[in-house]
Amino acid sequence: MPRIFLKKLAANTLICCASILVALLCFEGFLAVFHPYKITDQLISDQYDPLLGWVNKPFLDGETRLGYTANGHFYRRHNSHGLRGTREIDYPKPPGVKRILLIGDSFFWGYGVNDDQVLSEQLQRLAGDRVEIINGAVSGYGTDQELLWLQQEGLKYRPDLVICGMFPDNDLEEIGTSMMYFHPKPYYTLERNGLVLHNVPVPNIEEARSRMLLSPDNLFRRVKTFLRHHVHTYQFVVSKLNAITKVKQAFVRCKICEDFSGLYKPSFFYTQTDMEKRARLAEALVKEMQRVSENNGATFLLCFIPAKEDDPDSPVGYAYSDSAKKSKSMAALEYHLNAENSAYLQAFTAANRIAYLDLLPLVRKNHRAGNLLYYRGSEDHHWNEAGHRVVAQAIFDYLWGAR
Hints:
About 45% of the residues lie in helices and about 15% in strands. The protein is α/β, with parallel strands linked by helices. The strands form 5 sheets. The chain has a 5-stranded parallel β-sheet. The chain has a two-stranded antiparallel ribbon with strand order 1-2. Strand 8 (about 180) and strand 9 (about 185) form a beta hairpin.
């Protein structure tokens, strides 16, 4: 009798394990096809810089897959100077050529779309051979880093026009801290005598961070690294668990996951919590961009990038995903914030004689026509390929007149 019971138990256990394995394989296949989660070796697109915190990594060439991008993957390249795209652009300007320099964050850089779909490449096709479009945007940059990049690198290209893409949704947060996206960064304060730069040289934590993520020092970490890069299901489960604060804290206490806060020394951590001071700082940074551009023979244009919103007059919306309710409420809130930011920047640029391009009317016109310009759901908030195409046309029409 015990022997028969053990045989049945073994058979049932085997069937149960096989069923779980089949279910996991099916789920892994589903994620691989419809919602990739594994991290590829080509994920990191930036490198440490002592002045800017991070810059685009030169000669980057590869596809990246991230769990929160709606299309699952996109292909991106950087040239020898770290500029997005395949074209090599030397500092000296060719005779008879006008140059337009784009500076900004992940919107202008082209997060989520392939090289040929990025705003800069689409604008280049519209502008023709006598104009060079230079994409100097870097993912994660705030207005402070954009100003520094313009002074340090952008002006070497002798641009005739500098276009800064401003995304108030996170630009005001990024300029008010010395740490963003797990990277130390420079920051400014606005004093009586003007802008004062701090946290330079920027502390370098890349070696320690790379050692923990890419060169694990024990078997457990090596297994986790392997799973992160090869198994969608693992990364899916981990991302959901880490999103729960108490679970994440428990994992850290049990040393199941790493606590990266140990890499950051409190001595150089700074945060400005006063939103009014952040707004005044943002204004000073934009005015300094204009001054620097004009002093070097370039016109300056500020471009307002609206956040993804749900327009009550639009037949289509963005709110669908596993976080549909949260996505819907946030998108509805952005509708009102976009209007406020639009009006604020309109008044600010008019008062300071700064050329201004407001993309909000264009975005709402497309939404009301049923055209979505951003990725759907809560997975990502960036422009899709249609968004880049429409914005490129809008900039072209603004500069050369509607045709």
